[in-house]
Write a structure and sequence with these properties.
The chain is α+β, with helices and mostly antiparallel strands. It has 8 helices and 9 strands. Among the domains are: 59 residues, Orthogonal Bundle (Arc Repressor Mutant, subunit A), CATH 1.10.10.10; 73 residues, SH3 type barrels, CATH 2.30.30. The strands form 2 sheets. Strands 4-9-5-6-7-8 form a 6-stranded antiparallel beta sheet. The longest helix has 23 residues.
Length: 217
């Protein structure tokens, strides 16, 4: 049976919220989706019937392997769509999220498989996040927040924790794009703002920004 739009939105929320033990609380889901707790409880009971979660009253949900796979496949559709919009339709990385939110609910697997083929099977989306494969498997990345780096370190911009339009436009204005080499020149003790060097120019980033930038060494 095909999943509904609402079910897919819940699945995607589980994907983003689940912890290392495969758990997430009803309260976390409620806040993330901006949906009232009774509605979340009712949906999770349905998910339990489908074997996507293990539901026990007053306990965190446990997302099953089947549930994780279903959630990853929704995210796969979203991230493939974002990549297609950027690579084949020349959209900016800051303009693709809302469109992908709509197209991710198309049910044709062939449609997304063809999209994957046209893109030559990308491993990451335009924001540096891994694209799950057809079986829901995801590449593991060893990334850290830019805010956790130290003065003098040289890192490479690999991903963002937030693909918000305003934040991506903020990065565009500073010519700070994926795969950019970043040298950390100074960290201000007072507010933890960071002076970085990109090529031949310097930029100052707020602590709020460095918290949302993920890098690799």
């Amino acid at each position: 049976m095909k999943t509904t739009l609402t079910e897919e939105n819940y699945l995607k929320a589980l994907f983003h919220l689940v912890d290392n033990e495969g758990k997430v609380t009803i309260n976390e889901l409620s806040k993330f989706l901006n949906v009232k707790m009774p509605s979340v409880n009712n949906m999770m009971k349905k998910f339990a019937e489908k074997k996507w979660v293990i539901y026990e009253t007053y306990k965190p949900l446990v997302v099953t392997e089947t549930g994780k796979r279903e959630a990853a496949l929704v995210v796969r559709k979203h991230r493939l769509t974002e990549m297609f919009l950027v690579k084949k339709m020349n959209f900016g990385w800051e303009n693709v999220h809302e469109i992908a939110e709509q197209l991710e609910h198309v049910h044709s697997q062939v449609f997304f498989d063809k999209m994957d083929e046209i893109l030559d099977y990308p491993k990451f989306d335009p924001h540096g996040e891994p694209i799950p494969d057809k079986d829901g498997n995801i590449i593991s990345q060893d990334l850290q927040k830019l805010s956790s780096c130290e003065t003098g370190e040289i890192v490479v911009f690999a991903s963002v924790t937030l693909s918000d339009d305003a934040f991506l436009s903020y990065l565009n204005d500073r010519k700070l794009l994926l795969d950019t080499r970043i040298k950390i020149i100074k960290i201000e003790p007072f507010d933890k703002s960071m002076t970085i060097e990109i090529g031949s120019k310097k930029e100052i980033l707020s602590k709020k920004a460095t918290e949302k930038i993920l890098v690799k060494k």
